[in-house]
Amino acid sequence: MSALAAFAALGAILAAILSFFVPSFAIFLALVVIVMAVVALIRARRGKPAKGPAITAIVLSVIALLIGGAMSPDSNEGFQQATQAASAPDPNALPAAVTVVGVQSPENLVTVDGRRLHVTMMQGRTTSDPCRNGTDLATARELLAGQQVSIAAPDAARTDAPTAVPAGFQSVVMTLPNGFDYAKTWQSRAANAWYASCVSTGPATATEEPAPTTTTEVTSEPDVDVDADVDRPYVPAPRTKARSGQSGHPCLPGERDGDGDGFCGE
């Protein structure tokens, strides 16, 4: 056996052992051993007995290279980066369901995994009325905060203009846990909340005028005594003489009166 083949075999064994402890030096040593083993193989073909140790050195050197590459700090860092890249969510892919943890506005939301979503078909609702803006946001939080909702990419008929979508937000259509469309449900409830909080309890704008009063003029006339007749002379009422019958009771027809002047009734 040639000395070169023997040194190659010993170097391959040493490289395999060092690959677990000093990966970078083991890789360098394995490369040197492979070169030595190849030269030993070429000489073995010319009649020198070194084929077996040279092949063994090559095999052990390859094993050392694999182990050293796996144990290398640079390799571990690259593997970790690759694993993180594989586990990180694709910003362009949409999951079937998400959990809402932040409501920046009724149409701009933040999910538990950090996604920022823009719900389409809700533009044009912004007003300068602070009461309405407050009820709109409160309605959205009541519907979405902490809820797991379904999302999907909008079709052409439900896509907002690019200027309506904030930078970094994805346009989606959203379905509530009860199966209703979020945009339509929010519009209905927000209108009711706005009317109940901002319109029905607001100050009255119309001033009722008092009804006109009518004055009835009463014409008073002097009291007139209809019984008074100054032109008619006073005539005293005739006096009647009381009559009584013979028996002392009131005079009866056909009975003589008690005063002797005739019959009763005369």
Total strand segments: 5
Strand/helix succession: HHHHEEEHEEH
The strand line-up of the biggest sheet is: 1-2-3-5-4
Distance between the termini: 197 Å
Query: What is the share of helical residues?
Result: 40-55%
Organism: Actinomycetospora corticicola
Protein name: Cell division protein FtsN
Biased composition (Low complexity): 203-219
Region (Disordered): 202-266
Offer a few descriptive terms.
6 helices; OB fold (Dihydrolipoamide Acetyltransferase, E2P); rod-shaped; cell cycle; alpha+beta; Cell division protein FtsN; 5-stranded mixed barrel; membrane
Give a quick precis of the structure.
Helices cover 40% and strands 10% of the residues. The protein has 266 residues and is of the alpha+beta class.
Architecture overview:
Residues 203-219 have a biased composition (Low complexity). Residues 202-266 are annotated as: Disordered. This is Cell division protein FtsN. Keywords: Cell cycle, Cell division, Membrane, Transmembrane, Transmembrane helix. The chain crosses the membrane at residues 25-42, 54-71. The protein is of the alpha+beta class. Among the domains are: 3-83, no CATH class; 97-199, OB fold (Dihydrolipoamide Acetyltransferase, E2P) (Beta Barrel), CATH 2.40.50. It has helices at residues 3-18, 23-44, 51-71, 73-87, 130-144, 182-199, and strands spanning 97-103, 108-111, 116-119, 148-152, 170-175. Strands 1-2-3-5-4 form a five-stranded mixed β-barrel. β1 (97-103) and β2 form a beta hairpin. α1 runs parallel beside α3 and α5 (130-144) crosses α6. The longest helix is centred in the N-terminal third of the chain and has 22 residues, at 23-44. The chain is rod-shaped, with a radius of gyration of 61 Å.
